[in-house]
Amino acid sequence: MVDPSELSASEARRLIGRRELSPTELLEACISRIEAINPKINAIVATDFARARMEAMLAEKAVLTGAVLPPLHGLPIGIKDLNATQDLRTTWGSKLFENHVPSKDEALVTRLRAAGGIIVGKTNTPEFGSGTATDNLVYGPTRNPFDLERTPGGSSGGSAAALATNMLPLCQGSDTGGSLRNPATWCGVVGFRSTPGLISRENRTLNYTHFNVQGPMARSVADISLMMAGCVGNDERDPMADRCNPQAFLEIEPTDLKNVRVGWTEDFGGVAPLDNGIRDCFRAVIGALGNIFHSIDGRDPDFSDARDCFWTLRCVNYLASHAIRYEDHRDILSENIIKNVEAGKKMSLSDVSKAEVQWRKIYQDFEVFFEDIDLLIVPGNATPAFRIDDGIPHEINGEKMKNYMDASLIRSALTLTGHPVIAMPCGYDHIGLP
Questions:
Q1: Neighbours of 302 (CB within 10 A)
Q2: What's the rounded Cα separation, in Å, for the pair 308 and 126?
Q3: Which of 22, 80, 159, 200 is labelled catalytic?
Q4: If pLDDT is split at 50, 70 and 90, which confidence band does 243 have?
Q5: What are the helix (H) ranges across 220-348?
Q6: What residues pair up with 375 in beta bridges, in sequence order?
Q7: How far is the C-alpha of 188 from the C-alpha of 8, rounded, in Å?
Q8: Closest CA to 389 of 151, 210, 104
Q9: What's the rounded Cα separation, in Å, for the pair 187 and 180?
Q10: Which of these, 186, 174, 86, 202, lies nearest to 425 by C-alpha position?
């Protein structure tokens, strides 16, 4: 038998249910992997091995006594360090909360535990999830398992790196401008930006916005679906939330791809910067898909206003989340937080109202765009994973980026549509990285 840490979550859960794999055996394999690999990667930044071991023993007892087992029964899970976990250090990657230990779980963590998941530890994130690289003043940088000099991406980089190295079978993440999709792409795993409101969150900063969503990360699409059964849930404290049957994610049948109409775009018609090497790789992927779909055609949605719209609305989110911290603790905040708050302070209500109108039009146009296709395929990232010491790319193909988000527009434009987005691995790029 392979090392249990190498099993997919779906296979591990199947073996647990058949009494062929003990939850304690799976957990110990993951802990051994963490102890061996994590010092090099720095993906998992706080651990709760004692509680995890106790819960694994209880999970094993439930199997042996023939109890009805929930969907994630006995599966080790990593929680991004932006979500509160009871009695487990939660810092948001910020010196402001360096020694913070919550007294209770967030609702999402509670749901994952209720679904049988065993919370093993916290995964690294940039401060308050703000960054394309996973680095902060509390824990330092997380490294890409495929090249330790490079970033795994952000802001769910710790989760992606932990999955890529088989430290954990499931991890939780979150996504605003690509914080799930970016590290999943650069680490060769799967990340799912779920439909806004499907995974409720009781402490959202702004009521009615689908900017930030929670989502699962795993090593396969089947594992994503399995974890969704533990993530979804209504919460009256979240105005975006609604009821959803978790069982639906456990009963998904394979789709006949011959019925699927596909569109693809390299860069939204030249709107989003894209490294030429990535462009060539993407064309090769599209060419390799052959005739497996009903149809596959190149087509570009109208995202001509997406850059300015996203930048303005993003700054609104930063002002709502960090304006007070900026005034009181500017000296210990990351440069990224400071610059985004200051950019927001320079904007006017006219700027915001213009962005809101653009946002409505982008959504409406995208709905029309999907009238005769079922799926849009897009490059996962604009560039290869960059070196940690270099920071985010300031130019692509020799053209200088105008602001921090330009190199992320291939992802952030899709945030504005409100649609679910899944990042899936499809080989390696021109420099040998996922």
A1: 15
A2: 24
A3: 80
A4: confident
A5: 221-231, 276-288, 306-329, 335-345
A6: 262
A7: 14
A8: 151
A9: 11
A10: 186
Specify the pairing of strand 395-396 against strand 399-400. Answer: antiparallel
Query: Which of left, alpha, beta for 398 (phi over 0: left; psi -120 to 50: alpha)?
Result: left
Residue 258 has pLDDT above 70, yes or no: yes
> Which two structure tokens, joined as six digits, stand for 224?
């994503």
Confidence (pTM): 0.97
**CA-based torsion, 374, 250, 54, 164: positive or negative:** negative
Supply the DSSP symbol for 92. T
Is position 156 annotated as part of the catalytic site? no
**Of 5, 10, 94, 155, which residue is the catalytic one?**
155
Q: What is the β-pairing status of strands 261-264 and 375-377? A: parallel
Measured CA to CA, the distance from residue 319 to residue 256 in angstroms comes to 46
110 close to 86: Cβ distance less than 8 angstroms: no
Q: Which of 130, 179, 334, 408 is catalytic?
A: 179
Question: In this structure, which amino acid lies at residue 193?
Answer: R
Give catalytic status of residue 80 as yes or no: yes
Averaged over 283-307, what is the pLDDT?
96
Element (H, E) at 368: helix 349-369
Calpha distance 123→106 (Å, rounded): 16
**Rounded CA separation 391/372 (Å):** 40
**Residue 179 bears catalytic tag:** yes
